[in-house]
Amino acid sequence: MTPARLPSRPAAAAAALASALLLALTTATEAPAAPAPTAADTAARTTAAADRLTARITRTSAWETGYGADVAIANDGDTAAEGWTIEFDLPAGTTVGSHWSAAMTRQGQHYRFTHVSYNATVAPGGRQTFGFNALGTGLPLNCTVNGRPCEGGSTPTDPPTDPPAAGTPVDVNGQLQVCGTKLCNEHGNPVQLRGMSTHGTQWYARCLTGGSLDALADDWNADVLRVSTYVQEGGYESDPAHFTALADSLIEQASARGMYVIVDWHMLDPGDPMANLDNARRFFTDIARRHKDRDNILYEIANEPSGVSWPRIKSYAEQIIPVIRDIDADAPVLVGTRAWSSFGIPEGADESEVVNNPVDASNIMYTFHFYAASHRDDYLAVLARAADRIPVFVTEFGTQNYAGEGADDFAMSQRYLDLMADRRISWVNWNFSDDHRSGAVFRTGTCAADGPWTGTSSLKPAGVWIRDRIRTPDSFPTG
């Protein structure tokens, strides 16, 4: 985007308190008038609810030197629980490398996680989640929630490891490749992928849960997830190990659901990709090593270059692409273009500078971004011409203005979608979060409430519109 389970048994005291409260409530319904609950009554019920919480740890991904895990805290009672604390031990040689959606303290091999502001309350019948990435393969032991055994599972369980169901986009198309000006499947036939981009995972990791990704794959029928790893703004450069592990986890989860994954190096400011060259080498080396055997990965090496010439962007690409190719020889690489991936339109350029001076590499595509309320016929015309001359992938677009906010222009957006369908230009919409701007598909607060993810009740107008377009049946020729 251009800048701007199982219930636990209550303790005897808690059970007695709950019984007393129930009796008091029953008596109150029979009496002519009942006194309002006191603050002490409310606190007692909240405490009893907190005692009924359970927790389950699920390993969501694993690699040679570690794993990722989600922790779900469930409330099977009929009263909201305020606040939770999860504690467990890790064996010697294993540590928590990074975590999200919780505050963590550590004493030796003992870890303590507590709620943060947006997930402190566990509604009746509801749950809250947080996650962590472990360095090492040892599994948590002696799990407790608010001082009581987790009971939902103190040792991580793995999600189903069956291969994606027959008919998923990856099953049908296999390893993608660039053929001529098109993105083609393993059968050599042009395909169009359609899907969503995450927002910055430093802000909206809580929007990327098992439930939301299930919905994206199965309710939205998305072909592709773009995993956006911001470089600055509290992103990769602040904690490379954490953000690499978070990208790993999302790649694993999207892959398990049969979707393609765009690994997006989301550089914005500074707009010169050379400013982050060393970090880019490190990031793509780590990701490629871990996922080189997958056939569903695409690498987007520079989100939106700005303030620099095309020859400088080209030079950057010709230094990063070999880093990836030395490890993963087959995956397509997506190269950002001048002036926020617009082929330089705001600076008086167009696709000709790329056509006449292409990157010296094969199996690559060039990216184009647009926001329909701001980017009008001049952008549409450049996209149409470019797609006839070079391989183009629209890795980001919105129905709003260039900042991803303001009124939606669905009419102009549909003109773009019609062109992209005609030319088989793959596209990804910005963004799969509940950010307050109109370009985020979910209503604000959806992610903190853990959904609902399916259907349209939690969607903003842009979310309803783009979900309908993604759900349009794919045409994946295999003959």
Describe this structure in words.
With 479 residues, the chain is of the alpha/beta class. The protein has two domains: 53-149, Immunoglobulin-like (Sandwich); 169-470, Glycosidases (TIM Barrel), CATH 3.20.20.80. Helices cover 30% and strands 23% of the residues. It contains 13 helices and 21 strands. It has helices at residues 12-30, 39-51, 169-173, 201-204, 210-219, 240-256, 277-291, 310-325, 338-341, 352-355, 377-389, 410-423, 461-470; strands spanning 53-63, 66-75, 81-82, 85-89, 95-100, 103-107, 110-114, 121-122, 127-135, 141-145, 148-149, 177-179, 182-184, 194-197, 224-230, 260-266, 297-300, 333-335, 364-371, 392-398, 427-430. It has an eight-stranded parallel beta barrel, surrounded by five helices. α1 crosses α2, α6 (240-256) packs parallel to α7 and α11 (377-389) runs parallel beside α12 (410-423). The longest helix is centred in the first third of the chain and has 19 residues, at 12-30. The chain is globular and about 65 Å long. It starts with 11 loop residues before the first helix and ends in a 9-residue tail after the last helix. Residues 2-35, 39-48 and 160-165 have low confidence and may be disordered.
